[in-house]
Amino acid sequence: MRADGQHKSAMTRRASRPSPVAPAKAPPDDTRRQILNAAAKLLRRNGYASTSLRDIASATGMKAGSLYYHFASKEEIAETVMVEGIDLVRAAVKKALAARPKHSDPLEDIEIAVRAHLHALHESGDYASANIRCFNHVPDEIKQRLRKVRERYNADWRKLINQARTAGCLDTDVDDEALRYGLFGVMNWTLEWLRPGGPLPDDLGAMFFRILFRGAARPPTRD
Amino acid sequence: MRADGQHKSAMTRRASRPSPVAPAKAPPDDTRRQILNAAAKLLRRNGYASTSLRDIASATGMKAGSLYYHFASKEEIAETVMVEGIDLVRAAVKKALAARPKHSDPLEDIEIAVRAHLHALHESGDYASANIRCFNHVPDEIKQRLRKVRERYNADWRKLINQARTAGCLDTDVDDEALRYGLFGVMNWTLEWLRPGGPLPDDLGAMFFRILFRGAARPPTRD
DNA sequence: CCTACCGATCGGTAGG
DNA sequence: CCTACCGATCGGTAGG
Question: How far, in Å, CA of B56 to CA of B59, rounded?
Fold first, then answer.
């Protein structure tokens, strides 16, 4: 079976000959990914302080000290997970917007973004959740760098809202920043209560969009 | 000055003679309160795992071991703080609703509740914030008991929303639980971003109520 | 309410 | 990537 050289799937293949760009002697990048996956799951569930390097190591099938062959510190592991968490959601929203129907109006774009953000938060899962759950308890130095990454994603939303504002789709007595914080609030708060058996993230996104943009109150009847 | 027996304010007075209901020989309840105040502040800022008994003790001017004269464990201190955090907000909302204008409609009641909740969260401060910030990282046994206390507060909001529903004030295609989670989301998420220099909690409450019930989109013009 | 201390666990390192 | 270990810190206790 091994003679044909095709026995491994593309997912797990390793270079059989040293490649000029990725030398085969180097430690497999897979291990690094396994560490990050385990760390993301644990950080999401237990928080920053309660996640020990021994927990991460044993979940990856190695000993605590060995983690330092791949990362310089616990902080570096956590920061890597959280940055990826932000970028995963950001990329998911960007991708959903790129696939939107032509000539969609600014409000439709926001609905697409809301649904994509919620979907990524609950399906991609651990990385994005770890970012939101651990942000407050991470050392200040990391927090400051994370803020810059978050700010890029905030800018995406400000742009979406501003396009709706410019197009005249938003009510004049609604504050744009309050609206953005409100959107982040309803979306990210789902991490506190939404369980696997509950409503689907996509349906929830549609409902939240409807409430925040059309309002929960019954519209006044035309008379 | 001490001869008149009136030198202490009512806030800090102690029983000068043993009272049948609260014997004077007992340790002062003030100390217990000071411990809880310090714990609430630290739990809010640093989270459950990163708040040590030594931190709480030194903030109260005592040694770590002495805390066990007032509480049985770190868990008991945290649980006490968090239960009070829920009850403080709940009481603030109840009080605000009790003082509402006569014949206010159900939507006005909800706006009052939103503003009271936000006000309590950011002015009463540490206890309520500690509850929200630490809930996920507290031992399961405590979490289960806290859920029951939270459930009482949830019931208050379900009642408010249900009254609006029954009165026909809410749109038929809005889900009541989604609306409640949305309200909690926008309100509690303010802990993640609202800083002392920012908008006043009351103004923010009015804005959030406006967005969630009237909608951020410009209403269709009547033609 | 303090001193002195317990066993457990933490992030991290040396040497291989 | 492991073994063996470091100093620091943790929640909690004994005895006063």
Answer: 5
